Amino acid sequence: MFDRHEGGENAVLVHVDFAVQARGDNREELEEFIELVTSAGITILDMVTTKRQAPHAKFYLGKGKMEDLCDAVKVHQADVVLFNHTLTPAQERNIEEVCQCRVVDRIGLILDIFAQRASTYEGKLQVELAQLKHMSTRLIRGWTHLERQKGGIGLRGPGETQLETDRRLLRGRIKSIENRLDKVSRQRNQGRRSRSRAEVPTVSLVGYTNAGKSTLFNQITGANVLAADKLFATLDPTLRRVEVAKGQPIILADTVGFIRHLPHDLVAAFRATLEETREADLLLHVIDFADPTWQEKEKAVQQVLNEIGAEKVAILKVMNKVDLLGDIESGILRDEHQEIQEVRVSAKSELGVEQLLEAISELLAGDRIDCSITIPPEHGKLRGLLFQLHAIREESYLDDGSLQLSINLSLVDWMRLKQKLHLDLDQFIDSK
């Protein structure tokens, strides 16, 4: 769709370190950039780094560094130049003209990784939508040689320039994908409503990419979700039902990892997926405790949660990878009021996972009814409702046909049953 140089797998990287007072949204971590490039399966040929107060308007880099970049591209015969920053369409085009090779910025790189990872129908649609929205901002620079209407015999068209035609085709495709994703969103809402009717709380794993969410998800659920030491290994959400305590089931959701300056097009495209996070009863914020920059990444995750409207959901901090820190013990950390502050675990070696389940159970339980009840034969419907709530631990029949049950359920569910049956259920509780 573009009159641009072909991309490839051999790259020269560009990183600009901005002055502290002017860094704002432009400052990115070099180590994270290298991880992103490696995750995309790209071979790094060379790296051009520099320091600036602010980006150059035309080339992002200064004149001298642009010459260094061109030399590096020629010497290594690079296929692509990757910038660790967000470039304007004009800057991309200007650099391509000088370097004579493809130029991709940080957002384009992240979109490429997402395109590689997408495996489900929904995931592929979401990535394509984000790519098309990103591409639409760059059309004006892609067709500079076709901006005039064609004329002459056999060349007269419908009165549209090539640019207008492409914009129209893009709008049509974007609309088509958005309609399909709306259908997916409605299906997810149906699933959430059915879980809500069954009173099964949803717990969603969130955190910076590569913090260990999928490894923890596999340890808790026994699932076999891909867990790899690379950024954005998980793209498509996975949900599993698991019991955190006897008679206390939850739906655990593994979601896509966040990253600093996550592209807005991606946030919008993954709306249906991120709703699992926004509609959750509890968020487990998984943090790589062994990462020296974990506090900055914690803020980045919180910023994304604010963007998707999940800032009001209760959060439990899960400090992962304590096995890499010899002086840190796993377990629940409480404040002076005995409230849970955080849980320290090692998802890889299972340290602290049991305590994490206890903490989830405690935070979701609230006040609970844990007792034995005897139900007369004429109130057998109560047994079915308790069974739906997974509240029955043991049951046995008495000689008179009554049913004796050992139950455990939340006080909220107990009160709902009273209202539903218009019955004082407390009379059935055994006094022993």
Question: What does this entry look like structurally?
Answer:
By secondary structure, the protein is of the alpha/beta class. It is 40% helix and 21% strand. The strands form three sheets. A seven-stranded mixed beta sheet has the order 6-7-5-8-9-11-10, with helices on both faces. Strands 2-1-3-4 form a four-stranded parallel beta sheet, sandwiched between helices. β8, α11 and β9 form a beta-alpha-beta unit.
Compact overview of the structure:
With 432 residues, the protein is an alpha/beta fold. The chain contains 14 helices and 14 strands.
Order of helices and strands: EHEHEHEHHHHEHEEHHEHEEEHEHEEH
Distance between the termini: 77 Å
Rg over CA atoms, rounded to whole Å, is 28 Å
Which sequence of strands runs across the widest sheet?
Answer: 6-7-5-8-9-11-10
Tell me the structural class: alpha/beta
List keywords for this structure.
4-stranded parallel beta sheet; disordered N terminus; single chain; 432 residues; 40% helix; 7-stranded mixed beta sheet; alpha/beta; 21% strand
SSE topology sketch:
Elements (H helix, E strand, L loop, with lengths): L9 E9 L11 H10 L3 E10 L10 H14 L3 E4 L5 H11 L2 E3 L1 H12 L3 H16 L2 H4 L19 H36 L4 E6 L5 H9 L16 E8 L2 E7 L9 H6 L1 H8 L3 E7 L5 H14 L7 E6 L10 E4 L5 E5 L8 H13 L2 E8 L5 H8 L3 E6 L5 E8 H11 L11
Parallel strand pairs: 1-2, 1-3, 3-4, 5-7, 5-8, 8-9, 9-11
Antiparallel strand pairs: 6-7, 10-11, 12-14, 13-14
